[in-house]
Amino acid sequence: MSSRRPHRGFTLVELLAALLVLSLLALMSYRGLGAVLDAREHVGGEADKWRRVAAFFARFERDIELAAPRPVREASGIAPAWVGQAGASTGPLLEFSRFASPGSVDSPRRLGYRLNERGEIELWVWPGLDVAPGVQPVRYPVLSGVTKFEIDYLDASLAWVSAWPESSGSTMDPRAVRVRVTLASGEELVRVFALAA
User: Which has the higher per-residue pLDDT, 11 or 93?
Assistant: First the structure.
């Protein structure tokens, strides 16, 4: 007489329960990995944005530190060393003379900053200090994603004004420059740069 031993194994219900648990674990792992990757992409984008903002302000500060109190000759006559126009629509918001960087092959130049219609702050660079008739500046975008760009100037009475020079015959440079940048993401940044006396 042969005795039949029951086969030990998993029932169909046990296999289905195990598959259900494994699929739930896989789904939770997939969602967790997706959240980590999304957070990594967001943090990378934010870090890149703030790196570009810091580079813009560093460039602006370097240019302001090298500002030259030298008027320039233009086709229309003599222009002051500093020209700031509140709400300039076609020309630069700020235009000024700048010395050459120490120890570089750079030369003294006339620079300008402006917000263009694409939401980029542009750096305008003329080939030299004095501007020959018909010479146009080269324009470089230095910061994108900007909705508002304002520059104010600190006068001798320590009041902020939106245009420079204050009077038509003034040859004095401002004591400081305040830059206000509003990014497309909503942040408003304000920096104040003191000028060499």
Answer: 93
Segments making up each domain of the chain, as ranges: 61-143
Matching residue, tokens 């520059």: 151
The hierarchical CATH code for the domain 61-143 is 3.10.610.10
Q: What is the pLDDT of residues 43-68, one digit of tens each?
A: 888 999 999 999 999 999 999 999 88
* Residue 139 banded pLDDT, cuts 50, 70, 90: very high
Angstrom CA distances, 111 to 124, 128, 132, stand at 5, 9, 15
Amino acid found at 92? P
Closest listed residue to residue 121, CA positions, set 168, 65, 179, 161? 179
Taking residues 13-19, report their average pLDDT.
85
Structure tokens at 170: 């003034």
pTM for the model stands at 0.78
Whether the link from the prior residue into 165 is cis, omega within 30° of 0, is yes
- 57 vs 12: which has the higher pLDDT: 57
What are the residues facing 125 on neighbouring strands?
A: 111, 138
Inter-CA distances, 54 with 47, 48, 143, 170, 194, Å: 10, 10, 10, 33, 18
- Strand residues in the chain grouped as ranges (E): 72-74, 77-79, 82-84, 94-98, 109-115, 121-125, 138-143, 146-154, 160-161, 176-183, 188-194
Q: Cα–Cα distance between 107 and 29 in angstroms, integer?
A: 59
